[in-house]
Backbone:
């Protein structure tokens, strides 16, 4: 039997124990995260993922290159990912902040991405998992990175999960 997502009552109790990120912190944190991401991308590329390929707690990091929704420019981000067969699963958690990350909007506008995991690059197509699929994948995701539970508890938004598959 597979583990279930928490019922709404237990999620409400978890929200009481996990504090939301104040808006003022979100404002100053974003530029810092952007700068740290740029450094991570550069180091990851130079080392083929040997450096910058793991997040705190050991969760795997890949580089995802996508087209900007407004600018049309290619953007590369380091993101925690979960390999799942031939697929790559991404979670648009943004640490449980109140809004979806910008890359969420980029993927919904153009789902074609390049994913670099270690030294391997692949072209994939992203799609947002529906609620039932997310429910089935959630235990797999939290087994790799348990903090996803806190992030979901920290926000009222339904954190999107993307499944990136070969075309």
Residues:
């Amino acid at each position: 039997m597979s583990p279930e997502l928490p019922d709404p009552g237990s999620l409400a109790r978890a929200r009481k124990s996990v504090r939301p990120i104040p808006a003022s912190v979100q404002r100053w944190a974003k530029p810092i995260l952007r700068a740290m991401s740029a450094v991570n991308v550069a180091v990851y590329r130079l080392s083929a993922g040997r450096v910058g390929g793991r997040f705190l707690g050991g969760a795997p990091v890949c580089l995802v290159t996508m087209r900007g929704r407004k600018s049309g420019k290619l953007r590369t981000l380091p993101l925690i990912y979960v390999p799942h067969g031939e697929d790559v699963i991404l979670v648009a958690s943004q640490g449980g902040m109140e809004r979806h990350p910008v890359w969420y909007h980029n993927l919904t506008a153009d789902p074609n991405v390049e994913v670099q995991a270690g030294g391997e690059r692949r072209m994939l197509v992203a799609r947002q998992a529906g609620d039932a699929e997310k429910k089935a994948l959630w235990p797999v995701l939290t087994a790799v990175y348990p903090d996803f539970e806190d992030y979901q508890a920290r926000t009222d938004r339904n954190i999107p999960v993307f499944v990136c598959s070969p075309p």
